[in-house]
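PROTEIN DESIGN WORKSHEET
SECTION A - STRUCTURE
LENGTH: 593
TOKENS:
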């Protein structure tokens, strides 16, 4: 008997010796390790490109350095056009779509594509972040790892959440915030079954980061200013400000993307977007790249270093000019970031959100301190809490925002002001716009996974799995006699779709509709199908109706069977009994994750 392949022998051994639960723990550790490696690799490649550009004498950082993003975008354009032949996808929206409609299956190419396109974009000065691409690469690794070991859809979804937690844990060295991010953004249930794998992945990833990068932290400062109760009202003001800034950030994002849709050529988008970014960078250099240096300088109280060299250097001794420049960064960071995306760049929105929030928080503190009313607040604290407010508002991730800043500061001294500002920002943004940059497209289609179990189960269900096609079709012009001999006699169903020569559904006939006349032979040749047919209670549109809509149509119509059409043509029926059976099966699978 021939020997079985090694991988098959491993699968058999694993099934016999390792339970599904313990194997999930092992996979989550591997995912955390690989996600950490992806994040470290991404960071190192980007910093290598930035260092190389800094050392080139031909480029002058103070004069024409702002031209570099155009070269980076052009390199991304060439890579995607001639190598991958795929457009750049926005990381997290793409992952959310794969989770809801592709069973968490992600192409292998998504492992390495972000590791190339993101460093080219950010390394050359594109005003976006690296977190999104790190999550994209880690998620692709986890998805393909799950596919390799034949795990089910629920475990694959959990592993993708582990990859997201691992990426954040590696970049920020904040494992608790990483776990919460996976729960808030990917709508994972915070149960013991999901918490322990997330914890294992987060720890494995942060250890990987420490191993390769040591104690190097993105934010270097000494926290010394404690919360004072007299500043409470000012934190409320900051929370309100970040709430409205979050609305502006989101609306500006979609406005600019819609503006660039009018240009069909990717090259034209690159040229227009590249020039726009160059102009913004000339007047506001801190918009260059991710912006961690900008944040660190603000936290250190050195706003001049944060602003860098600008055309307004001669006026920097005037604090109101500094405030105006910081307002400019607050306003234009969202524009520069979205323009980078629209021009074909790859990156994430998480870190640009932090940059914008830090600038806004610092502005609010400076205004309070320089109004001449005798108030004095901590600019460092307001800078930190401004970041949290924007994260909570833009991403709808309030707990992530609170714990991220708490871990960055190394304690919970700012917990109360964080809760004040974050809750205000989240409430204002959530009431104004119920979706985020990540979720808008899926939410509008009803394809977004949420913490609502009923909604998520319906989203995960496939209409194809419940469509039945074993119905005898009738032509509207045939007689009652032909219908009985060619239809009723040969069918096991009591429902008959009436379809014309163009395959369009023109009506239905139930066996009950002809029961009283089916034995009256005098009507066999004089009565046509079109005389007996009637409209169905409702119709399911294959392309536009979500499973939630399908369920609602059954509820509203009280029907047991509804026809399905696609491009105006009949393709089958969905029965309520089969739909509910599929729903119960999916619910069981979903809740046993």
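SECTION B - SEQUENCE
RESIDUE ASSIGNMENT:
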């Amino acid at each position: 008997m021939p020997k079985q392949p090694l991988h098959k022998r491993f699968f058999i051994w694993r099934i016999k010796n390792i339970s599904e639960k313990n194997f999930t723990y092992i996979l989550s550790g591997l995912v955390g390790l690989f996600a950490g490696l992806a994040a470290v690799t991404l960071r190192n490649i980007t910093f290598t490109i930035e260092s190389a550009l800094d050392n080139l004498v031909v480029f002058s950082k103070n004069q024409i350095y702002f031209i570099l993003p155009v070269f980076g975008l052009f390199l991304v354009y060439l890579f995607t056009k001639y190598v991958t032949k795929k457009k750049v996808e926005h990381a997290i929206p793409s992952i959310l779509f794969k989770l809801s409609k592709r069973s968490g299956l992600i192409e292998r190419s998504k492992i390495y594509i972000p590791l190339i396109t993101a460093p080219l974009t950010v390394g050359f000065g594109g005003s976006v972040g690296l977190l999104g691409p790190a999550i994209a690469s880690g998620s692709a690794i986890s998805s393909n790892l799950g596919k390799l070991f034949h795990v089910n859809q629920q475990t694959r979804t959990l592993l993708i959440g582990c990859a997201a937690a691992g990426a954040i844990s590696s970049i920020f060295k904040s494992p608790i915030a990483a776990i919460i991010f996976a729960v808030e953004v990917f709508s994972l249930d915070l149960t013991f079954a999901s918490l322990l794998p997330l914890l294992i992945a987060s720890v494995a990833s942060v250890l990987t980061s420490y191993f390769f990068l040591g104690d190097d932290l993105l934010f270097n400062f000494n926290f010394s200013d404690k919360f004072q109760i007299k500043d409470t009202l000012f934190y409320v003001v900051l929370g309100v400000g970040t709430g409205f800034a979050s609305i502006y950030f989101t609306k500006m994002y979609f406005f600019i993307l819609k503006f660039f849709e009018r240009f069909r050529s990717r090259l034209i988008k690159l040229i227009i977007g590249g020039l726009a970014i160059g102009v913004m960078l000339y007047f506001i250099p801190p918009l260059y790249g991710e912006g961690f240096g900008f944040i660190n300088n603000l936290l250190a109280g050195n706003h001049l270093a944060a602003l860098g060299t600008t055309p307004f250097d001669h006026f920097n001794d005037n604090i109101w000019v500094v405030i105006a420049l910081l307002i400019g960064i607050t306003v234009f960071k969202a524009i520069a970031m979205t323009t980078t995306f629209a021009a074909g760049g790859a990156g994430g929105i998480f870190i640009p959100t932090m940059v914008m929030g830090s600038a806004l928080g610092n502005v609010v503190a400076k205004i309070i301190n320089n109004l001449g009313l005798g108030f004095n607040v901590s600019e460092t604290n307001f800078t930190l809490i401004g970041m949290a407010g924007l994260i909570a508002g833009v991403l709808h991730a309030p707990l992530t925002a609170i714990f991220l800043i708490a871990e960055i500061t190394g304690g919970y001294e700012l917990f109360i002001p964080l809760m004040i500002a974050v809750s205000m920002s989240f409430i204002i943004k959530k009431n104004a716009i119920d979706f985020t940059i990540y979720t808008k497209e899926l939410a509008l289609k009803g394809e977004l996974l949420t913490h609502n179990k009923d909604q998520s189960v319906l989203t995960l269900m496939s209409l194809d799995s419940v469509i039945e096609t074993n119905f005898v079709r009738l032509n509207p012009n045939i007689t009652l006699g032909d219908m009985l001999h060619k239809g009723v006699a040969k069918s096991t169903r009591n429902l008959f779709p009436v379809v014309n020569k163009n395959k369009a559904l023109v009506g239905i006939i139930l066996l009950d509709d002809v029961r009283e006349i089916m034995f009256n032979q005098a009507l066999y040749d004089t009565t046509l199908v079109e005389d007996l047919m009637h409209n169905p209670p409702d119709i399911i549109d294959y392309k536009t109706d979500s499973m939630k809509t399908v369920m609602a149509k059954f509820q509203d119509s009280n029907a047991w069977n509804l026809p399905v059409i696609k491009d105006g043509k009949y393709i089958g029926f969905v029965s309520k009994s089969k739909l509910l059976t599929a729903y119960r099966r999916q619910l069981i699978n979903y809740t046993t994750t």
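SECTION C - NOTES
The first strand starts at residue 467 and ends at 468.
The beta strands are 467-468, 495-499, 505-510, 540-541, 561-566, 569-575.
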